[in-house]
Each structure stands twice: as C-alpha cells, then as structure tokens.
Amino acid sequence: MLKLLEDPKYPLLGPHLRLLKFTGLWHPALDRVARLKLLLFCVTTSFFCSQYVKCVLFLNVDSIKLILQYIPFHIGIVKACFFKKHYANWSRLIESISEIERHQMLQKDITIHIKNYIHRSRRVTFFFWALAFFSNFSIFTEPYRKNHVGNGTDSYLYLFDGYTPFDRVPPGYYCSMFVQTVLGHVVSAYVVGWDTCVVSIMIFFAGQLKILRIYNMKIFCYKNNVTSFKNIANCHGFYMKLIEYHKLFNSLISTVMFIYLIVISVNLGVCIIQIAEIQDDLGAFLSAYLYIVACLIQLLLFYWYSNEVTHESQLVSYSLFESDWYYAPTILQRNIALLAETTNRRFFVRVTVSSHC
Q1: Calpha distance 218→110 (Å, rounded)
Q2: How far is the C-alpha of 348 from the C-alpha of 117, rounded, in Å?
C-alpha cells in the first residue's frame, strides 16, 4: 500500500511531495483544487494569528498558556509560510535532487547505494508519520478529558483560542472544537510534511557524499590518463553541485530552524512544569509524556541527520587516498592532491536568521 506513494520522477521525495501536495504546499500546477487548498492555508493562518490578536487585546493569561503549550502547531504555520515564500527555490532544490538521482540510477553500481539511503529515509518518514498520528490522537482528545461539567461550575477547555463565531458552551463549544480539530490537523500535516522532507534531504546529502567517496576511490585509471583527468573533473563538478545545493538548502531552513529551536525549548519547559503539577490523573500524565517524547524525537531527527551530513563531508577528501593514486604520474598526483584540498570542507546545517528570509 505504501508503494502507491512512490513517484519515479522523485525517487527520494515522492511520498513527501504527495503529502505536501495533499496539504496544498506543493503545487506544480495551480489548478482549482490547488487554489482551494491555498484558501484553506489562508484561513488556517488567519485562525492561528487571531490567537495573538486576542492575547494582545484582552491580555488573557489562559490564551497565552494555550499558545505556549501547543506552540509546535504555531511553528507549523511558520514553516508553511516560509515554504510558500520560497516556493521557487524549494522547487529548484527538489527538482535538482531528483535529477541527480534519476541520472545516477542508470549506473548499476551506484543504484544500490541510492536505494539504501532511500530505504532509510522511508523508515524515518513512516515512523514519524505514525508518531504524529498517535500524538495527535492524544492531543486532540485531551480537552474532552479535562472538561468539568456539573455542580454549576461547567468548564470547557480548548486546544487553540483563535476566533470562531460560536459560543463557548455547548452546542457552540462542539462546533468550535470541530473547527479547531480540522485546522489543527491541517497544521500538523504542514509540520509532518516539512519536517520529514527536510530530514530526507539531509539523508540525501549524507548518501550523496558517500557516493562521491566511491567516485573518488575509482578516480585513477591505469590504462588512460585522459580518463583519470576526466574523472577528476567530474568529481570536482559533482562536489561543486553538492555545495551549491547545500547552500541553497541552508538558506531555506536556517531561519525556520532558528525560530523552532528557541520556541521548542520554551515549549518543553512549559510541558515539563505541567507534568510536575499533575496529580492522580494517569491519562493526562501519559498524554503529556507522549507529547514531550514526540517533540524530543523530532529534535533528535534534525540533530542526528545533520550531524551525519557533517561526518560524511569530513571523509570525502580522505577517500581520494583510498584510490591507487600512488601509481599515477606526478601531474595526476598533483591534481588529486588539489582535489583533496578542495573537498576538505565541512557541511553543516546553519541555524541562524538567513539574509534571504
């Protein structure tokens, strides 16, 4: 069944683009359906922004607590807005990545390495999708468990305190919760789609750096020095492409990651305090615990795979000396040494406010 999500045009990013297209963030053709999804994006963004307007106008402490408690959903709006703003650059990066993979999959000895990192990406992606599904189930049922009804002190809790034209008591409460649940799931899809796409692109860079090491180890040809020079030029050109795409990737995610890391730190602190205050409520404890675990796993994925890219980038120049370079003529050895110096560069994810934001 999951095979249906694959797309031969996008070997690595097929399932992610299907999810992003389903949410309306990815729209190669801006048809009527895409425009309706764009309208839903505008409505969702307006709803979440209305929470901040209410906080400023009415200085409601409960509204501020709700924002801090469920702020990863608000970060989903930030991720979606930045994706929309830089859609042309995202499209260029995704198309370039897929073009590299389609070309490499024509080489039988390289295809197996591409399939290996695609398989890793799929395991991470589908695990994160499942985790998000169960986390959402826990989050969106929490207000109903905490509502206090009876004894003349009815209290109805919300997930998001955005504007809805309904009363705060039933039946208006249930209509409002329905709107919040639908828009919350939309934002959750934005988060899951963006996060897994970014992690998969990190896996792409780590995998392509491994493939570059294979090219480097085969760089010297005994029979023909011209072929060796051509291999050096090809490796250098491929490495420059990876640098170009990695710079573009960094410019697209650096600002979002900067905001995300600050906000998630505050959010985790708030949630841990809430867990410490829970008394005799196992359901609420498990719900909050699952939510924190999901947030920590989300952080771990970014740290783990960005670190893997950095680690692989440090091994590229060494792989040249795993070739039979010592049999090469002096002029070839000089070119190989120059290539080793050129590829001695660390790839890392920059977390800062980008100049392109």
Answers
A1: 12
A2: 19
The CA distance from 90 to 241, in Å, is 16
Distances (CA, A) of 32 to 88, 95, 190, 354: 20, 23, 20, 33
User: What CA–CA distance (Å, rounded) separates 8 from 15?
Assistant: 11
Secondary structure E strands in the chain: none
Domain ranges of the chain: 12-344
> Which of 34-43, 216-225, 255-264 tops mean pLDDT?
34-43
Q: Is 224 exposed, middle or buried (0-12, 13-18, 19+ CB in 10 A)?
A: exposed
Q: Write the DSSP symbol of residue 148.
A: B
Render pLDDT for 40-74 as a digit per residue (tens, 0 to 9): 999 999 998 888 888 878 777 777 877 877 888 88
CB 212 within 8 A of CB 235: yes
Q: Read off φ and ψ for residue 263, nearest 5 degrees.
A: -70, -45
Please report, to the nearest 10 degrees, the dihedral formed by the alpha carbons of residues 220, 222, 226, 230 taken in order: -20
Nearest partner of 245 among 105, 92, 119, 102, judged by Cα: 92
* CA 135 to each of CA 80, 118, 132, 283: distance values in angstroms, whole numbers, following the listed order: 20, 25, 5, 13
Contacts 24+ apart (CB under 8 A), 312-318: 312/205, 312/206, 312/209, 312/210, 312/213, 312/347, 313/209, 313/345, 313/346, 313/347, 313/348, 314/346, 315/209, 315/213, 316/209, 316/212, 316/213, 316/216, 316/239, 316/343, 316/344, 317/341, 317/343, 317/344
The DSSP line for 178-224 is HHHHHHHHHHHHHHHHHHHHHHHHHHHHHHHHHHHHHHHHT---SS-
Supply the mean pLDDT for the chain.
Answer: 86
Q: What are the two backbone dihedrals, phi and then psi, of residue 105, each rounded to the nearest 5 degrees?
A: -70, -5
Q: Which two tokens stand for residue 88?
A: 């042309």
Cβ-contact 163, 152 below 8 angstroms: no
pTM of the predicted structure, to 2 decimals: 0.90
From the number of C-beta atoms within 10 Å of its C-beta (0-12, 13-18, 19+), residue 163 rates as middle
Q: Among candidates 34, 35, 14, 33, which has minimal Cα distance to 121?
A: 14
Give the pLDDT confidence score for residue 1 in this predicted structure. Answer: 61
The end-to-end CA distance of the chain, in Å, is 38
Q: Which two tokens stand for residue 129?
A: 């999708």
